[in-house]
Description:
The protein is α/β, with parallel strands linked by helices. It is built from 28 helices and 21 strands. The strands form 4 sheets. Strands 9, 10, 11, 12, 13, 14, 15 and 16 form an 8-stranded mixed beta sheet that branches. A 6-stranded parallel beta sheet has the order 3-2-6-7-1-8, sandwiched between helices. Strands 20-19-18-17-21 form a 5-stranded antiparallel beta sheet. Helix 3 crosses helix 4 (62-75) and helix 9 packs across helix 10. The chain is globular, with a radius of gyration of 28 Å.
Amino acid sequence: MSDLLAKLNTEQLQAVTLPPQHALILAGAGSGKTRVLTTRIAWLLSTGQCDPAAILAVTFTNKAAKEMHARLGALLPINTRGMWIGTFHGLCNRLLRAHHRDAGLPQLFQILDSADQLAAIKRLLKALNVDDEKFPPRELQHFINAQKEAGLRPAAVDVWDDYSRRRVELYQEYETQCQRESVVDFAELLLRTFELLERNEPVRRHYQRRFRHILVDEFQDTNRLQYRWLKLLAGGEPPACLFCVGDDDQSIYRFRGAEVGNMRDFEREFQVTGVIRLEQNYRSHGNILDAANAIIRNNSARLGKNLWTEAGAGEPIRIFEAFSDSDEARWVVDEIQQLVRDGALRADIALLYRSNAQSRVLEHALFSAGIPYRVYGGLRFFERQEIKHALAYLRLIANPDDDTAFARVVNFPTRGIGARSIEALQDAARTWSTSLYATVPHLGGKPGTVLAQFVRLIEELRRETARLPLPELVDHVLDRSTLRDHYKSEKEGRERLENLDELIAAAANFTAEAQAGAEALAADHALLADFLAHASLEAGEHQADQGMDAVQLMTVHAAKGLEFDAVFVSGLEEGLFPHENSILESEGLEEERRLMYVAVTRARQRLYLSFAQSRMLHGQTRCNLRSRFLEEIPAPLARWLTPPKPRGGPGGGYYEPPRGAFAPRAQPAAAQALPGGLRVGQLVRHARFGTGVIIAAEGSGSDARVQINFGDAGIKWLLLGVAKLEAC
Ligand code: ATP
Ligand code: MG
């Protein structure tokens, strides 16, 4: 232990060894906040000030929770598994399972992730014959979540006209539907737990007495309800010590209701006297840190701090301008190969992007080059179509009233149940206020007969799997549901089959972990319900845990709190990063800048920044100006790998490509022969995209590229030297 403390600097040591009191550690990226928080837990335990059961630690991601477990396990000779370390959602799930009756839920309640929630809302609107142009499902979803995050049930929401009244009615209907189906969305996890603690004195007292030290990482991103939740738990007699660490410059979830104001309220309401600041950065080399400082300095709303490091300046930041997104991806791959040849571990390299949609091109390039990679978030494993189908069967076994799951697989794989039958079922379920599943036996006629077969299948599955270990259970369900056969017969089904196998592996992993943990599981299928909760909560993070040396891909949001030797941030273009939705208002822009600050400060030794002149995104080719954030990096810190061009564009602002920039070019030049004897207007064939027409051409020699309309496969820019086009 003293070893551990010896490595801390004065301020860190002060923070770790604060006497039992509330504390706020406000510090910049890489200054050791998470390390201080973990070390404080170790210090509290090893000095005998409390036992592991008295600690509640809130992390921002499941990955961070796992790391904290691992670090504590390494520091102390204790089993950390039973400790309450997790995300807000994970901790709430645990509380609700333990007190499900008090919370008005069945033990095997299911969790809706946001895609499930949207599907449930769409289903509701349809059943109620609501015009979804007037009440777009996504907006309604956002509204409902915002109310829940503000702690407001329908009865407490203000209404002022017919529209707002109707919207609140829909919120109420949605709640009724969720309750009937025994499902809980993410916001509900929190609100339900909060209400449980608030209303149920014995339960509240129990946890208030139990948790003597509550520690929160990434405190700047807590929302109002989470803050109230913490306040409630810490507010016993005597109160618990609340130890929060955060960085206002890394607040990147305001769009989800996070409030930096919580930091000020915390100081005031808890009379925090000692706010400790850490300013020495231990993560990044000087150039990287200076760039981060220079970028964030452009924000106005800051609590203000500057980071410094003892590490030398290190290498310059590398900046690359690509022709196109695929050109950019190829460059990234080349650089990665070079890094690996130079001895880098792939797992120490991260590719970060602003939007999930950007990962596809990068993935493709990595895959083609045979470089192992893992995607965090994004096309999340548990969100893939085939996995969702399999999970829906599993969910029906655990909870037949889960209408979302029912609707998903009642006719998948197809078993001759038509839309009419399902509509008849939905109408009847509505009339009787029962779940779809429970309604089936009461439905007559042909719909009743075909649907009864499906219900029988689920009943049989439930019986057959009651005593099976979880991985075998999953395996059995994949067979009996005929999901496996279905994907076997699908042309592109190989990858999906692999993913289904991966689901069995995930179930095996989960079982091993659950057995290692102390928790006893009584009811049949209780482990299944836990696994399903895990699938909803840990979506995507599972992949990166396999200990394989793989390049890490993730959005900047998902990278928060993490660090890597080499970091690539691609797509630094106006409209993409900063994102077009935020560009027009200063608050949005400041949040984008904090996001850029997070991205840059993930790098230890090397930082690569890139942008592309043209990019295919959501099926459209876009030409964007390079990001203003690149301009904010002082020139001496960076090295351009491509000669920097003047930024241009009207007023340096967001640049719309001139209309017709990609229209067929009718100039005589277009008729000139291109390398390979091709011409604009000519029909060509490409191995992957099929047949298309060349509609534009640019550049010459090895830079010559053409724009081709491939019909269904879209319009693409291809480099002639690379694309291997065949004239037809
Ligand atoms: P972020 O804001 O990105 O979450 P953080 O403030 O939580 O960053 P940590 O992740 O705790 O920072 O620490 C950054 C890196 O610096 C880690 O690798 C950590 O081990 C290291 N570090 C922190 N303090 C020290 C120290 N006193 N001596 C050596 N290394 C340190
Ligand atoms: Mg941290």
